[in-house]
Q: What sequence folds into this?
């Protein structure tokens, strides 16, 4: 059973926007860092954005910087990924992830908790 639950994916035209949500149980939401990864067909899973909750700062991949924003809503145990100015190359399955104590950047194997993934498709 997936402990992280993503929602908000779907299909959108290039230039459009989507907001992904990820709800976590309290004991996982309290992790040191929570993140969004994505994986396109035939490609490796890549880090998109990380929220370092202890430090109160975030990281975004160069490919999405200025277009995507990771944020949190503590009362709802939820993190978000606001995606604006979507491009065809943003098409992928997006995953929410959490690492409780040992954040090591956008390395998928370093994250111990994952969601099932949600599809985002950008069309021309």
A:
């Amino acid at each position: 059973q997936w402990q992280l639950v993503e929602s908000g994916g779907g299909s959108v035209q290039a230039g459009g926007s989507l907001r992904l949500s990820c709800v976590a149980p309290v004991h996982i939401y309290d992790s040191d860092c929570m993140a969004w990864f994505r994986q396109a067909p035939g490609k490796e899973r890549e880090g998109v954005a990380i929220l370092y909750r202890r430090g109160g700062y975030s990281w975004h991949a160069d490919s999405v910087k200025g277009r995507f924003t990771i944020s949190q809503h503590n009362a709802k145990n939820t993190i978000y990924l606001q995606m604006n100015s979507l491009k065809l190359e943003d098409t992928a399955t997006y995953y929410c992830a959490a690492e409780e104590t040992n954040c090591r950047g956008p390395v998928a194997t370093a994250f111990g908790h994952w969601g099932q993934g949600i599809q985002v498709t950008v069309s021309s």
Q: What stands out?
A: DSSP finds one helix and eleven strands in the chain. The helical segments are 26-29. The CA atoms of residues 32 and 101 lie 5 Å apart. The two ends are 35 Å apart (CA to CA).
